[in-house]
Amino acid sequence: MIVVIVRRTAVAVAASLIGLTASGTASGTATAAPRAAETVPQSWEYSALRLAEAHRTAQGEGVTVAVLDSGVEAGHPALAGKVTTGPDYVEDGLQPGDAKWGDHGTAMASDVLKVAPKAEILSIRITNDEDEDEDFYTGTSRVARGIDYAIEHGADVISMSIGGELLGDSYDEDEADALGRAAQAGVPVLASAGNSGDEFNDAQYPAGYPGVIAVAALQQSGSRAGFSTVRTYNSVAAPGVAIMSAKNTGGYEAINGTSPATALTAGVAALMKSANGKLTSAQVRSILTSTARHASTGPSPLDGYGMIDAAAAVQSSAKPPTDRTEPIAYKGKEHLATPDGTPKTQHPPLDTELVTIGGAAAAVGLIMVIGALLTARAARRRATRARAQRAGRG
Fold first, then answer.
1. 290 assigned to active site
2. Any catalytic annotation for residue 177?
3. Cβ of 15: how many Cβ atoms within 10 Å?
4. Which of 111, 142, 325, 340 is exposed most, by the fewest CB atoms within 10 A?
5. Among the CATH numbers 3.40.50.200, 3.40.50.10490, 3.30.540.10, 3.30.450.20, which is that of 7-317?
6. 104 part of the active site
């Protein structure tokens, strides 16, 4: 069952026509040999996102984007020297270099770098391109493990162009907990809204989790792409039709989907973090939504707050809004014990009024139960005496 969130155009752009071929494979856990990466052929998203203007301020320097996907071919010319290959949680026997390894993930990584060319990619394999693994749900979710690995290994942004019937159709407590840890670490998490808008319009996770920046897809006209899932969890939207992306076997092809839209948005988040490394995940989300094209009209299930604006988002990152989601110190009276276990001399007062009311109600209820039992017992005794009297007369 295909679960990757991508739709490919009928005609791929052949490597021979562009003069590009893959020149190597990922090395397992090492970073690919450093050399200058090629530029991914431009699509209409460059002007739509105002990338040229955004790049005058930031290009993703010092930022690592974790791509949780089907693997990334680090040897592709567009990714040269930019990819560190993390763990493979799928363990299906496929290896870098196989035609069925890293198809989707390679495309997504190239879309991130198209927006943030000086960022680094951390590839974490959590699915194959046709995930039919029957033991996907055994143990901790791969999504949760991938998020935790990304946090522990210094990711600044997490991009998940994933979802579907096996990879995210229901709430998972482990995933929700991992997303909470990402928020605490200040790591924004982006996920694709889904491609079922022209079918059953199914909701999917991880896009549906609170705190996740769910990305819808737009077509060249700026309106929602017909396949883009319509849901109230949609945060923002980005170009998602005919996006030139790298192929794991070399060269490039144009793809459609909320997957490339998500990768492009993750690239914008990388630009923002590059411009201001202190941004929290809540601030990244707030800036993306407030600088989107139709933010003044409020969110829409079609495309969230609308088309993201990379230039405006980077500019706003210099003076971000206050993060009101951070923990706030308690300023009231301290009770019970201190963190080191030292008992406090003052204890919280007991709300005796509520206790009294509750106790009285319980007492009344107990009296009524006892009364009912006594009444029933007395009735049984009267019935027994009556039967005995009738028997004596007979």
1. no
2. no
3. 17
4. 340
5. 3.40.50.200
6. yes
